[in-house]
Amino acid sequence: MGPALGGADLDFGDPESIQAAMDAFNALSFEERKALTDPQIAASFGGDGLGAALDSTGADLPLTPSPDPLTVTEQAVAAPFLAQIERVRAHLGRGVKLTATGNPKLIDAKVLMELFNTDDRWEYTIGDWTHTTRSANDLPHMLYLLDVAIAAGAFESNGRTLKPASGWDVLDPLQQCEQLLNCALDMGAVSRGVEPRYANGRPSFFDACYELLDDGALHLIVPAFVVGQVETEVVVDHATDVVAGELGRFWPEMVDGAIFDESVERDVERGLDLFTRLGMIGREDQVEVPDRYSGEMRLRGGTVIMEDLGRHLLASLLSTLGYVVHTPRDLAGLSAGEVVAVLAAGLGDVEPAEVWEAWSRDRDPADNVDELLEVLSASTSTPERLAVMALLQQVPGDVYRRVESVIDGPYGAYALIALDSNDSLVGDLTVDSEGMFEEEPFDMPGELDLSPTLLTDGRPIYEVMASLPPEVALAPLVDMLWAEMDLDPESLIEHVVSLDGDSEASGNGEGPGAFTGMLDDLWRVRSPETAELLEFVGANHPVKATAKAARKALQRHRSASHGSEN
Question: The pTM is what?
Answer without folding.
Answer: 0.71
